[in-house]
């Protein structure tokens, strides 16, 4: 029996990978002839739609991480980083470390759901100096940075330096950028009352977007409503503006002509003094995909209508790392959790069909709607064919995403965080995660300052 056992290996513990594992567990969870395996760098599913609320201090850090072992109880789990995928030998190799040896895992069927990483479009200085909003660590680090800037600005007497402390620039007008900007403004306004010298008009949140509108893909009226409400709250939204450099003190931008975006001759160079730039402007597939033997286009795995990877039957790619063209728009599907989960369900069905020798089904995406929160109990939503804005859209966003949290304890914790936020101010404690400098190290730093 053991020789005939089929092994399905899922790479990635994000929305796509976890949903695929859950669907396969329903079919094969008690089947001794099928073994389910998952590999992920982290042993938790990060609920990324709520990352901005962690950065603003509304939700506690651990409340948006769901341990994979509690969700996929019938799937063997490996925490590790993927070194290599050999589709000819049907082997996946994990990196070894000082604490554990390298492991090779054989598979009969493979699901690649490795997601994506932040794309800086080749700007090394931006990559070095910008903050990102992709991981739980990013959210915690950003929150600490914002509070640190308030602390520095409160006692700073140089007006130019003080202004750079209180200017916060968000690059990218998509879901992540707009929701981060809204939550950031909420945090700043809540925290300001504890800093007597900082006035409301001193705080600047600036959103830079290269396109001519925010929230591309959304209903135009709703996107305009979101922009109008955010501007009312003091958020500066600059459209058709691209970042060209950021050295940690000043971000340089290029104003783009509507028809000649890439032409430097038709652009206007500008700059903003800031110590904090948050980059949410794009994603790119992980390096494991780029260096694999699979055929790729724009760094993504090429898949057919059944989400199978070209030239390798039984290997599926889903989520951000898969290139699937929307037949209606003739453009790649956007990297959203909703699409990742929809692809995961189709891939699971087709895996079941392969094992049972039945007919596979093509992946056809039907949007269930779109939602975004823009701060201060306001949001926009396209839901059940209706366009909704304001408080009701914000309420729908909360209910929908709360329902998607799979474990009852995490659902309860997030709900309680939201209730507490209604009655109490946000905590402004800065949690230093780095090693505390010794007095000797402080003296060395002071001596370096004196030399300069």
UniProtKB/TrEMBL annotation:
Coiled coil: none
Domain FAD/NAD(P)-binding: 7-344
Keyword Transit peptide: yes
GO molecular function: NADH dehydrogenase (quinone) (non-electrogenic) activity
Organism from which the protein derives: Nitrosopumilus cobalaminigenes
UniProt protein name: NADH:ubiquinone reductase (non-electrogenic)
Family according to the record: Belongs to the NADH dehydrogenase family.
Record-annotated External alternative NADH-ubiquinone oxidoreductase-like C-terminal domain positions: 368-427
